[in-house]
Design goal:
This protein has 166 residues and is of the alpha+beta class. It has one domain: Peptide deformylase (Peptide Deformylase), CATH 3.90.45.10. 23% of the residues lie in helices and 33% in strands. It has a five-stranded antiparallel beta sheet with strand order 1-2-3-6-7. The radius of gyration is 15 Å and the shape is globular. The relative contact order is 0.20. Keywords: Hydrolase, Iron, Metal-binding, Protein biosynthesis. It is an enzyme of class 3 (hydrolase). Belongs to the polypeptide deformylase family.
């Protein structure tokens, strides 16, 4: 178990769709432990495996006093109601932009025993669920911005010291 270093915007792992978890062994248990340790810090609500450099469909969350994880998550329900909500990301630190998100979301996946898990919620929970599944699909919240706002955001990103370049 360890708090892992984060990957930042520009790292290719963040734009690559994650592979499903197919083996439920000690290496996946270690990944889950690392995801839980890494998300369990002040100011963090969710963390997807690609954000620590692992291309597997797994994320952890810390919401409303509850810490948990989901393997192979899929969004199975979104409310028709949406809103623009300021959003940030551990992989795009210090930048916040308004993103349109459903006000309610349901995610289904499995746990370490390959048993079904469902996480649902509204408000920040719904936002977090959508945000983390986006990561697993190779999307960043910046991809959901309007074209004009995206240009401005990318300009700001390129000026940051953490911007990962090759």
């Amino acid at each position: 178990m360890a708090v892992r270093d984060l990957r930042y915007f520009g790292d290719p792992v963040l734009k690559t769709p994650a592979d499903p978890v197919t083996r439920f062994d000690g290496s996946v248990k270690a990944l889950v432990d690392d995801l839980l340790d890494t998300v369990d810090m002040p100011g963090r609500a969710g963390l997807a495996a690609p954000q620590i450099g692992v291309g597997l469909r797994a994320f952890s969350y810390r919401l409303g006093g509850k810490v948990g994880y989901v393997l192979n998550p899929e969004i199975v329900e979104l409310s028709e109601a949406t809103h623009h909500i300021d959003e940030g990301c551990l992989s795009v630190p210090e930048l916040w932009f308004p993103v349109r998100r459903a006000t309610y979301a349901v995610v289904r996946g499995v746990d370490l025993r390959n048993e079904p898990v469902t996480v649902e919620g509204d408000g920040v929970t719904a936002q977090c669920l959508q945000h983390e599944v986006d990561h697993l699909d190779g999307l960043l919240y910046l991809d959901r911005l309007t074209p004009e706002r995206r240009r401005d955001a990318f300009r700001e990103v390129r000026q940051r010291d953490w911007f990962w370049q090759r």
